[in-house]
Amino acid sequence: MSASQTPVWFITGCSTGFGRELARLVLARGWRAVMTARNPAQLDDLVEGHADRALAIRLDVTDRANIRDAVAEAERRFGRIDVLVNNAGYGYLAAIEEGEDEGIRAQFETNVFGLVALTQAVLPLMRAQKKGHVVNISSIGGLVSFAATGFYHATKYAVEGLSESLSIEGAPLGIKVLIVEPGPFRTDWAGRSIIESGTTIDAYDETAGARRRQTRERSGNQVGDPVRGAEAIITAVTAENPPLRLLLGAPAFELAHAKLDRLRAEFEAWKEVTLDADYPEHRKAP
């Protein structure tokens, strides 16, 4: 396969973590990569030796004009986008009452609205190609919630719902969707990338406060390997029958199954109250 026939991956947030490792692996396979970061100079080492197949672009996903320009530049350079990886995002630590309006809205602008805007900009290309794969990096936090990360969970739950709908809408058009749900990985998520509310309330010290401290202490010691995680994403995207969801790491697998068990038990425990909410004539026999 010639270089001009290889798939084109458009990846956001390539300065660190999953985005960087995905870009590295994509290029190592001889494919083409559009790599984005707010400071594209951080991607120079990835481009080196791959100038014919690599394109580094400045992209702030909260800037709609920047998004349009970046997608247009990728199309001019490679003529198509086969895989879009919405990886840009970050965490925000605060109990719900401690959340500050500016920080909450900034989190949603990047993690949700930026993802939506970029996806909308790329979908016309994929529709024209009759083929494409949208990879949305969610989190085990898109399925399971903890103290201190409620606003982050809210963004990831939004990504999960959006992605499910897109998978239904895109299927007849040849567009697939993959929701990636990593557990704790050794990325910058809990390090330099994390943002904390400046407001703290003593009443939440045993819940949100404890989780804030644990998050800082565990940074750099997580069990997840970003390289292996990126390889797993590529395996899922290139599979003959790719999944809609991909859990990454043993903690994510265990937490997701525990959540399923809790949901099933609670639904069954309240089954009669649930069914009694219907008009009696429409009540089905158990």
Attribute tags:
seven-stranded parallel sheet, two-stranded parallel sheet, globular, alpha/beta, Rossmann fold, 9 helices, 9 strands, 286 residues, single chain
Number of domains: 1
Give the low-confidence spans: none
Q: Note the total helix count.
A: 9
Rg of Cα set: 20 Å
Helix coverage percent of residues? 40-55%
Average of per-residue pLDDT values: 93
**How large is the share of residues in beta strands?**
5-15%
Secondary-structure class? alpha/beta
CATH secondary-structure class: Alpha Beta
SSE succession: EHEHEHEEHEHEEHHEHH
Quote the CATH topology.
Rossmann fold
Lateral arrangement of strands in the main beta sheet:
3-2-1-4-6-7-9
CATH superfamily: NAD(P)-binding Rossmann-like Domain
Give the termini distance in whole angstroms. Answer: 58 Å
Gross morphology is globular
Can you count the beta strands?
9
Corresponding CATH architecture:
3-Layer(aba) Sandwich
User: Biggest β-sheet: count, sense, barrel?
Assistant: 7 strands, parallel
